[in-house]
Amino acid sequence: MIRWLRANWVLLLGFAILAYLLAPIAVVLLLSFNQPGSRNTTYVLDMADFHFTWHNWTDMFGPAGLRDALVMSLIIGVLAAVVATALGTGIAFALVRYRFRGRTSVQALIFLPMATPEIVMGSSLLTLFLGFGIPLGFWAILLAHIMFCLSFVVVTVKARLAGLDPRLQEAAMDLYATPAQAFRSIVLPLAWPGIAAAALLAFSLSFDDFVVTNFTAGTDLTFPMYIWGINLRGIPPQVNAVASATFLISLAFVVIGLGGRSAGQEKRS
């Protein structure tokens, strides 16, 4: 037994860390099927007082304001991910493929929003928007989210592009492909996994953000702000169902992506 533990301690440690990471998600998923006695006991995990129900899933948007807040977060998350991915991908290609004056400074500045505390970024953006007369609300939130998501997109796509062999594009052009054809047929498919990962990361960061959004939201309400506000009166159990559904949808995207990648590798082999 001791010999087996010595030979597999790394694997056991990995499973223990994975269980530690997934335990809160498992609790939320379990509580999404519980009907608590009151909103103050929504997050009280007492199996002796566990009342199984589908009501939280069938009436997911029953609490007032939950649907509007969730839709607001989804719209901002999608728009922020699309714009940040488009801009960040272009910046990443420029940093990897070209040498220009100030390139090192640009790369350092890219990391600045990632290293800046969110409360500092949020207060700075609030001062900037008020100074330029930009009204707080939907557009202010969207601009703020695009700004801090941009750095993560650049870093993610840049890491993918750094591992690509530029000679593949040159070989395509030697076979009479135009630069646009070589980019569309060779470079873009190879870079696509990094671009897709950057887009999903940007959406997750935008959807989950509270601190920066709290400074720039004005009277608008996103899903994280809805949870924070309603916590003062007690969180409805439907929030657990929404959170569980979000996790399951994200997991489905990951599984589909891994399945498509495996199928592509088998096809190439």
| CATH architecture term of the largest domain | Orthogonal Bundle
Task: Find the CATH topology of the largest domain.
Answer: MetI-like fold
CATH homologous superfamily heading of the largest domain: MetI-like
Q: What is the total number of structural domains?
A: 2
Q: What integer is the average pLDDT?
A: 83
Total number of beta strands: 0
* Uncertain runs: none
How much of the sequence lies in strands comes to under 5%
SS-based class:
mainly alpha
Helix content: over 70%
The largest pleated sheet is described as: none
> Quick one: overall form?
globular
CA radius of gyration: 23 Å
Q: What is the terminal-to-terminal distance?
A: 40 Å
Secondary-structure element order, N to C: HHHHHHHHHHHH
CATH class of the largest domain: Mainly Alpha
Number of helices: 12
Gist?
By secondary structure, the protein is an all-alpha fold. The protein has twelve helices and no strands.
Notes on the protein architecture:
This protein is mainly alpha-helical and 269 residues long. It has 2 domains: 1-62 and 237-269, no CATH class; 64-235, MetI-like (MetI-like fold, Orthogonal Bundle). Helix content is 74%, strand content 0%. Helix 7 packs across helix 9 (179-208). 25% of the residues are buried. The model has no long low-confidence stretch (mean pLDDT 83).
What topology does this entry show?
Layout: H1 2-7, H2 9-31, H3 55-58, H4 66-97, H5 103-115, H6 118-131, H7 138-162, H8 167-174, H9 179-208, H10 211-216, H11 223-230, H12 238-268
Helix pairs in contact: 2-12, 4-7, 4-9, 4-11, 5-7, 7-9, 8-9
